[in-house]
Specification:
10 strands; single chain; 10 helices; alpha/beta; 275 residues; binds adenosine-5'-diphosphate; Rossmann fold
Length: 275
Amino acid sequence: MLAVENLTKVYKTGDKALTDVSFSVPKGQVVGLIGPSGAGKSTLIRCVNRLVEPSSGSVRLNDLDITRLRAGDLRRARRRIGMIFQEYALVERLTVMENVLSGRLGYVPFWRSFTRRFPPADIAMAFRLLDRVGLSAHADKRADALSGGQRQRVGIARALEQDPELLLIDEPTASLDPKTSRQIMRLIVEICRESGLPAIINIHDVVLAQQFSDRIIGLQAGRVVFDGPPTALSEEALTRIYGAEDWTAMRQGASDDARAEDEEREQTKALMRSL
Ligand code: ADP
């Protein structure tokens, strides 16, 4: 369980990015974090693992008060938090397997990681995870030979290889096409359900957030202005979050994509039946 209490962040520039943000996320719950650009989504995600230092408030993960940890303990605590980034942050010239194993680096002594000697249990886990994300046939490929969706799957497997207690996911679909975006979101949600992992996903796309999250938190100018199930995200709530921005257009475009995917699925089924 993650508990964020009265979190406030004021950058040195005087920008107040977060004001008094409080919420908690139980095991297995996937939270979609939405809000217009500049609302504080990235700051919030980064305050949770202290890539950004909060100005006040607390972040607790299970038995640990992350906000009180000193450098060494913080490094150890960060192993318990898997991060998945928009730009995948893979090492291009390493193989898929090596990228996934790099999720263990926080656990493996330096000399072993330097010689790339990982314990057999770590390697077995990496094979299992590659299988889970549908990439077992690609373990030996170099990361730079993969498609965008495949790269994001490697990013997911690498975060899971850390054996985390929480997933923080920053714009996982920002550079993917709509169909691949839905596949990636579906995979993330299934994995969280299976393993009881709580997750916070910073997601720009409201429709994807609604479709795949268990709960939506809406930020506006650094404050939580909505916190509830996707079904409660009314037009009034969306206007509270996005103001005058035309989110109806966003919605229409995405539902067209979903329809196209449904059609594709039906066509494939028809094709299979005709064989
Ligand atoms: P979002 O992810 O929702 O787009 P951010 O968390 O990036 O929002 O930004 C929230 C606010 O904090 C914005 O006003 C932004 O300009 C400001 N901000 C973000 N990062 C920094 C920084 N490193 N230094 C100063 N201000 C920042």
